[in-house]
Amino acid sequence: MSTLSSQAKKEIKEVVLASPESLSRFLSFLLRHHPASYPLHFDKHGFVEWGELVRAVQIRFPEIAEREIINVIENSDKKRFELREGKARATYGHSFPVDLGLETVEPPSRLYHGTARDLAQSILREGLKPRGRQYVHLSPSIEEAMDVGKRRDPAPSIVVVDSRAAHAGGILFYSCGQLFLTTEIPPRFLSLWEK
Length: 195
What we know:
Layout (H helix, E strand, L loop, with lengths): L5 H8 L6 H14 L14 E2 H11 L5 H9 L6 E4 L2 E4 L13 E2 L4 E6 L1 H10 L9 E3 L3 H8 L7 E6 H6 L4 E4 L2 E4 L7 E3 L3
Antiparallel strand pairs: 1-3, 2-3, 4-8, 5-7, 6-9, 7-10, 8-9
Helix pairs in contact: 2-4
């Protein structure tokens, strides 16, 4: 049996009741960012065996039922997770390499990226980059980008991507649930949204 990391051991000591939101955050922790904290075995597409995932979740949340995990995965408004053929994975947002098997798409004419105000000018100068993730995440609406940006800043800046021009210039876009993903956007395709 695999041993747990010190991070996982600390978390076990806490008695935590699992709300759907905290369970979703923990699934993101496991499936997107820190798979080594709870020794999970991923295939090249980011899938982990369902039973293995359930056991890892139940280490953190001993009272959680398998049905509750399924509900969080199936009812995620942003389709963050996927359950397929006895395996589960995060559908985007990985900070470790995963082949998601995404197909390129033609994006809408404009896409949006919500960010902290103090990062907006450097993004306009240097371009949009994944910053520790595999892809840049882009929203199809200003409202969605605003919600994303508010995770880091109560009054975020919205970067507008001329995605049609970027696509014509050779930038590849992928659709993933409600999001669009790309590897990076050069500054010439970016502007700041003005209210």
